[in-house]
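User: Structure with adenosine-5-diphosphoribose, tokens only please.
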Amino acid sequence: MTGEEAIKRAARDIAKAKRVVAFTGAGISVESEIAPFRGKGGLWERYNPEEYAHISTFRNNPEKSWQMLADMLTHIKKAKPNPAHRALAELEKLRKLRCIITQNVDNLHQKAGNTSVIDFHGNTRWLTCLECGRKYKLDDFSLEEIPPRCECRAVLKPDAVFFGEPIPMDALRRSQEEASKCDLMLVIGTSAVIQPAASLPIIAKRAGATVIEINPEPTPITGIVSDYLIEGKAGEVLPRIVEAVGKIGIRK
Ligand code: APR
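Assistant:
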């Protein structure tokens, strides 16, 4: 479903919902010039994730992981929130967004002003030394020289969840709780294939929530878990939905 009718339907659904949660993936940051992982131009087209983004590679050959990390983080360091991120910040200001659960590690929801964000796969704003535990800000490194090293000379690791690593317990628990208690979930810019993240829209659906997808193309959950898909770019669709929600006003 595309166009004005879909936008209006989503705005009506959000206006009458009592507890809205947004679940976002790499697609919401594509319009901030950050490549998605899958599909055309995706990061995993250039780097096999099982090779470059697995924790065992990082431990045994950190220089190799840092080839992929430098590519991804160079774009993240330059990236700015786009109209989609700003629309979700506006939805929080309208008191119609309880929280964002994001799979992204680019910190753009926080930069856009959202205050309730669960970083399901961590966040690359900080780097940690696995030897001595010291933490550093990504912004303090130019990434001209990789891999970045700690004062103790060990290689630093971004605070993102690598393949083969567990989801941080607190993020997992809070995300599952929010998904089970929401009555509407916006699923924005995700291919919905990675577990356990992709179970969150299913938890919401099972709890009776309306699940609305925003994506230029269908995904494996379209029409099965999601009630409807609004086909389009998040940076174009979300601002129009939030503007319509503002016009409807917030029914108590
Ligand atoms: N607006 C909305 N959606 C978009 C846009 C856009 N402008 N451009 C692309 N998309 C959609 C694509 O159609 C696709 O469905 O965003 C999705 C991106 O999918 P992935 O690249 O697989 O990203 P994501 O779903 O977040 O991946 C999940 O996989 O590799 C791991 O840890 C990584 O967090 C990531 C997880």
